[in-house]
Amino acid sequence: MVGICGGRVGEAVAAQQVCRCFCAATPPVVCTPVGAVGARVARTLRARVPIASSTRGRSACINPHASAHRTRTADDVGFDSIWVMDHYFQIRGGGPPEAPMLEGMTALGFMAAHSKRARIGLMVGGIHYRYPGLWIKAHTTLDVLSGGRAWFGIGAAWNEEESRGLGFPFPPLRDRFDMLEETLQIAHEMWSGGRGSEGRFEGKHFTATRLLNSPQAISRPRLPIMIGGGGEQKTLRLVAQYADATNQFGDPARLRHKFAVLREHCERLGRPYDEIERSTLQGVDVDREAPAETVDRFGALGEAGAQHIIFSVRGVHDTTKLERLGADLPRRRRVGWHRRLGRPPAQTLPPQRSVTGRRCAEDPDE
Q1: How large is the average pLDDT for residues 318-335?
Q2: In terms of DSSP bridges, do strands 245-249 and 225-228 run parallel, antiparallel, or are they unpaired?
Q3: How does strand 152-155 pair with strand 125-126?
Q4: pLDDT, averaged across the chain
Q5: Distance between CA 318 and CA 67 in Å, rounded?
Q6: If you write DSSP's letter for every residue of 217-272 in order, what string do you get?
Q7: Domain that holds residue 45
Q8: Of 340, 352, 283, which Cα lies nearest the Cα of 311?
Q9: Does residue 27 fall inside a structural domain?
Q10: Using the 8-state DSSP alphabet, how is residue 62 labeled?
Q11: 226: enclosing H helix or E strand
Q12: For residue 52, what is the DSSP state?
C-alpha cells in the first residue's frame, strides 16, 4: 500500500514537482499536493516499500533491489518525502503480526542512500522505543548524511502487543505523553545553536546533564517536527506548542473539526496557526479511480483545510502506478483548488505523512 501526499496549497508553480515518499516495512505511501494557486500544482509523494503486505513467505518487498527501485522511482518522479513506519510487528490491516516488518531508522538510512531530493522520516516514531538523546542524535545523523533531508516524526505510540512481545517497557498513556513532551523540549534544545544548548535538562522521566549535539543538523532552523495523532486535549496542544506539522485521518468534516481544535490551541498559546502544516492520510487505487476523481476528492479535503494529502497506493509494487500518479494528478485540477487554502509555514519544510490508511490507535484521544 502506497500513500500520496498532497502538496501545500499556494506554494510553488506547476512546473515544480514536490514529492513525498513513504518507503518502509510495509507498502509505500505517496503524497500529492492538495492545493493549487494559479497554475501551481506541486505534488508530494511518500512511498513506503510494501513489505508487510504479503504473508506468502518472504515478501518480494524485502528484496533490497526492489526496495531501492521504489525509493528511486518516488524520488525521480518528483515526490518530496519518503516515510516509513516505526513498528516491529506488522500492524492490523496490513497482515498478521508475523508478516515482514523492517526497523524504521535503519530503513531510512537505506532510503537516504537511494534518493537524492526527497525528505525522509518516520511516520511516526513511537516515543517509548528510544531515549530522547538517541532520537535526536539518530535523526541528526540521518539529516547530515542525507544532505539535510530528514523529518522528525514522533507520537505517543499505541502498539502494546509488539512492545510487550519484544520487551519494550510500555508505560501508561499519560506517562507516554509526558515522555513525548519532554523529548520535544530536549529536541528544541539540541537543535539550537551550533551544537545544541549544552544545557542541563531535568524532567519527570528524563534527566540530561549536557545537551550537546555535534555535528549539528543541516536542516534550518532545525529538523522539521511532525507530531502524529488527533487527540484534542494533549496531542493537538503539543502540535501547537512544539511542532511544524500535523497529520489527520478522516473525511472533510472530521478534518475541519480537528483543524479548528488545533487553531484554538494555537490562539491560546500565541502560535500563528498558519505556521503549522496540515496534512491528511487517505488511500488511492489507480485501477478503480480515475485521476479526475482523485483530484476532485482531494479538492474537497483541501477545502476542509488540508494542505497536503497523503495517501496509500494500492499495489505499489508496480512502480508504474507511482509514475502515473506523478504525471496525471498535477495536470488535473478542480476549480476549488484555485483558492488560498493556507500558506506554507515560515520554514521551507516538507509536510509529513502517516503510516497506513488506517487510524489504528496512533490517535490516542487525549
Answers
A1: 71
A2: parallel
A3: parallel
A4: 77
A5: 12
A6: PSSSSS--EEEE---TTTHHHHHHHH-SEEEEES-HHHHHHHHHHHHHHHHHHT--
A7: 3-337
A8: 283
A9: yes
A10: G
A11: strand 225-228
A12: T
pLDDT tens, position by position, 98-141: 888 899 999 999 999 999 998 999 988 999 999 999 999 999 99
Is 117 within the bounds of a domain? Answer: yes
- Give, in degrees to the nearest 5, the angle at Cα 363 between 91 and 262: 150
Domain count, the chain: 1
Q: Provide CB contacts within 8 A for 293, sequence distance 6+.
A: none
Which three cell numbers mark 135?
532520537
Rounded to the nearest 10 degrees, what angle do helices 291-303 and 252-269 cross at? Answer: 30
User: What does the pLDDT average to over 59-82?
Assistant: 81
In a domain, 348, yes or no: no
CA gap 240, 262 in Å, rounded? 7
- Does residue 225 sit in helix, strand or coil? strand
The CATH number assigned to the domain holding 145 equals 3.20.20.30
Specify if 351 maps to a domain. no
pLDDT tens, residue by residue, 218-260: 999 999 999 999 999 999 999 999 999 998 989 999 999 999 9
Alpha-carbon torsion angle 86, 92, 93, 97, nearest 10: 80
What's residue 24's pLDDT? 37
